């Protein structure tokens, strides 16, 4: 079996990151202006406790997955929470452990600073991803509401 490698994003990953993030946004039928791409890429490398961070997954040397995550304060804990904001694996590699490896990388990284709560959300129709999520995490039963 080929080994999945997960590592922090590097500046040299820009083209792969943009390709993967565009595919993720397309999956959710979303388009963002180039300005948002640019500011997001910049933020991923900005030092700061609450700045977003990212991992990229490779398989046979090819970038096949990514995740973005960020830390935020909580009124329920002294430690921050970790929100896994975006998670994507190329359709060609789904079911091969890329998503699970990216989730585990975020969990391990958060654990290094004492974070105990890593959470995320997905669309209810995302049945493929939900099979993985139901296997690696517990479903909380909370329902999201947006004002804007």
TrEMBL record:
The keyword Transferase appears for this protein: yes
Domain N-acetyltransferase: residue ranges: 4-148
Stretch forming the signal peptide: none
Assigned keywords, A-Z: Acyltransferase, Transferase
Taxonomic superkingdom: Bacteria
Full protein name: GCN5 family N-acetyltransferase
